[in-house]
Amino acid sequence: MQIQILVIEDDEILNSGLCYNLQKRGITPFSAYCVEEAKSLLKKEHFDLILLDVNLPDGNGFDFAEETVSRCNVPFLFLTAHNLEEEIIQGLRAGAEDYIVKPFSIRVLMEKIQAVLRRCSGTKKTEPYVCGSLTIDLENRLVKNKGSLVSLTPTEFEILEVFCRNRDQILTKEVLLEKIWDRKENYVNEHALSLNVSRLRNKISDGEHEYIKTIYGLGYKWAGEMQ
Question: Do residues 96 and 168 share a domain?
């Protein structure tokens, strides 16, 4: 399962650098530069970890952590330029896994991220997605259509998972191939991908909803509304 991390940092250079280093380690990063952008992404995506700057243009990281992040059941690390004991205590009391003071070593931060991910893996539950007549339980790898179990191959399920986790994005065939097969060092051509997407589309179809939309010349996009 692909790990996704939300980077909430208004310094564009630092945000970009963090995302670059996360990608190098096989992690999918998402960038937010303010509280409102972060809130929007949290409504749409599942995250395994959040990197949260304390000082943001439209809000305070401590308030955001207590009001929003704490309800998402996602571990988070504070990033700050302030090395004040009171703020460190405040950050830890807000539920942060750690409090990272700028400037920091990227290598050390990446190791701390991996340590948090290891520590928190298996401790949080992912709620099933409900979309139209579909119930998609990514944690237990189960899909139901109108209450009846849908039998998917491992490849079909992985494609469905990628769509669910990237449901507001157009996914090119190249991106799908990279996310699903390249990480396993298996080669699958575009024809095999199209065939698997077609089979998946037929298996989850209910005659009322279009879940996977073909964007001609580009790729595919999840068209269902998640509840």
Answer: no
- Residues 51 and 42: their CA atoms lie apart, in Å, by 13
Q: Which amino acid is at 31?
A: S
Kindly report the pTM of this predicted structure: 0.56
Which is it for strands 98-101 and 76-80: parallel, antiparallel or unpaired? parallel
Q: CB of 2 within 8 A of CB of 28?
A: yes
The whole-angstrom separation of Cα 49 and Cα 41 is 13
Structural domain span for residue 179: 129-222
Residues 6+ positions from 166 with CB-CB distance below 8 Å: 222
Q: Taking 80 as the threshold, does the pLDDT of residue 168 lie above it? A: no
Q: Is the pLDDT score of 204 beyond 60?
A: yes
- Measured distance CA(134)–CA(130) in Å, rounded: 6
Specify whether 103 is located in the same domain as 15: yes
Within-domain flag for 20: yes
Domain termination site, one of 120, 142, 158: 120
Number of domains in the chain: 2
